[in-house]
Amino acid sequence: MSEKYNILFLHHSTGNVIWKGGVSKLKYKIGKTGNVQKWFSNYNHLNNTNYAISDRFFPARDPYGWNNYPFDYYTIWVKNSGDQPYKQEPTLEMLTKDYDMIIWKHCFPVGRLEKSPDSPDINSPVKTIENYTLQYNALKKKMHEFPETKFIVWTGAALVEKATTEEQARGMKEFVTWVKEEWDDPEDNIFIWDLYQLQTEGEIYFKNEYAESEVNPHPSDDFARRIHPYFCQRIIDVIEGRGDTGNITGELK
Question: Against a cut of 0.70, is the pTM above it?
């Protein structure tokens, strides 16, 4: 068996649905393994690999607060970087000592964009494309400080039509497009998994048939059951050197 390769997935509720991969909340609560973990167990068995994937809620609800938007990753990993945790949350200096790959994401309120400010502010928690852009550029520079660690960043989760406005939805598509086409550099240690495309299929709203309901933007269990293998395949592609050539949705070409 190959040397152990440690993967950490940082998420909140949207990510947790995909992590479980369609396993019901009740079964998961009583100890049934999530389908992402099962997928990797099967992959390791068939390929004689030792890819160890684990997850954690990040940031935790207390003491930091239940927010995982660009401002929050910037605050913890860039503004308060170093060998000590910030509000009990580990910095990249700490995480990269234990993990070969770190995967991070935002939950769907990332798409509840406000009007553009007169002047963008990297230290502002206000959800605007301009603030996100500054924070993402700072995060990219920070991740580049750890070239031996690979990072996968999920595109922002989409909102169902009844949970957003057309202006917000178009703004979110603009930001996701910027992340994929401009922010993401080839041949570095940062890669994208395109959840947004799987949710919207090229449109601007999370399709109702894939969501928990027409007013609840969490992914449905059926959707998670279908797409969690794409997430797993994207991880494998990145680990095994196909990050810049594989499909960023994880679907096989």
Answer: yes
Which CATH number does the domain housing residue 182 bear? 3.40.50.1110
Place of tokens 């924070």: 135
The rounded distance, in Å, linking the Cα atoms of 100 and 104 is 14
pLDDT in tens, 190-216: 999 999 999 999 999 999 999 999 999
In the chain, the N- to C-terminal Cα span, in Å, equals 28
Whole-number pLDDT of residue 117: 80
User: Does some domain include residue 246?
Assistant: no
Quickly state the pLDDT bin for 32 (edges 50, 70, 90).
low
Output the furthest CA–CA distance in the chain (Å, rounded). 56
Angstrom distance (rounded) from CA 165 to CA 72: 24
Residue type, 209: E
With respect to residue 251, please indicate whether it lies within any of the assigned structural domains. Answer: no
